[in-house]
């Protein structure tokens, strides 16, 4: 039963990951990532870490992916050009990916961690539930917890500064095409260019 | 399931994310592939936490999730800013620092 669940979730996670890199449209990539995240949550449940699985579904597959969907809908999914700046990138990249996988597997499996081949330590009934994680966060890891909250605040402020509409008169106002900007593009044929004597 | 299955799966997912970063050129998809790699790391952390029977690795995974959320917020803010300036959304065209 456990093996069947593991392979089901592993196939879901791997298929989602491959879907992310194979889809042409970024919107479908986001949907594939949601499949991947749900499969990972199932794997976390198999590892008896209920809180991480719940946070994965609620925070990642819920909130973060909604942000992605909004930005994809705003920017629009333009197809990528087929032009390759590095010749043979399409063939070299899978080789490098396979090499990375083999290297990581050798590094982990050939280490002398004897417990890797076992089922894991015996754990008590409350292992990984929200109470245990909350106690660890607020007793042992209070400083990282507070530091991550400050980091979240800084990220929110930074995103507002980055993405906010510039006020008029500011240099490089992106929404109103300034005259400097249009003169700086010589290749775009302006409709009034031919009418001027 | 023994721990090594989870670790090998995590290595496979990490390699898939790295492959996506090497192959794709849209900044949005590259951010998604970064998510794949961070999640593979999370899976390894949780698997090792289960292996030693200690919950501290799961706290680590939760903090990694927070970092990933911050990275997504800043990255998507950058993408929206690039789009507003009508620059091409292609990492090979954005190789200069001046906009």
Mean pLDDT of chain B: 88
H/E element sequence of chain A: HHHHHHH
Which range best describes the helical content of chain B: under 10%, 10-25%, 25-40%, 40-55%, 55-70% or over 70%?
over 70%
Biggest interface, chains and residues, is:
A-B, 90 and 71 residues
What is the straight-line distance between the termini of chain A? 82 Å
Number of helices of chain B: 3
Global geometry of chain A: globular
How far is it from the N-terminal to the C-terminal residue of chain B, by CA?
51 Å
DSSP strand tally of chain A: 0
How are the elements arranged and paired?
The complex is a heterodimer of chains A (197) and B (99).
Chain A: H1 2-22, H2 26-46, H3 50-75, H4 89-109, H5 130-140, H6 142-163, H7 179-183
Chain B: H1 3-23, H2 27-52, H3 56-84
In short:
Helices cover 64% and strands 0% of the residues of chain A. Chain A has 197 residues and is mostly helical.
Q: Keyphrases for this structure?
A:
heterodimer; A: 197 residues; mainly alpha; 7 helices; globular; disordered C terminus; B: 99 residues; Helix Hairpins; 3 helices; 0% strand; elongated
Provide an overview of this structure:
- The complex is a heterodimer of chains A (197) and B (99).
- With 197 residues, chain A is mainly alpha-helical.
- In chain A, 64% of the residues lie in helices and 0% in strands.
- Chain A has seven helices and no strands.
- Chain A has helices at 2-22, 26-46, 50-75, 89-109, 130-140, 142-163, 179-183.
- In chain A, helix 5 packs across helix 6 (142-163).
- Chain A is globular, with a radius of gyration of 25 Å.
- Chain A starts with a helix and ends in a 14-residue tail after the last helix.
- Residues 176-197 of chain A have low confidence and may be disordered.
- Chain B is mainly α.
- Chain B has a domain at 25-90: Helix Hairpins.
- Chain B has three helices and no strands.
- The N and C termini of chain B lie far apart (51 Å).
- The interface between A and B is large, with 90 and 71 residues.
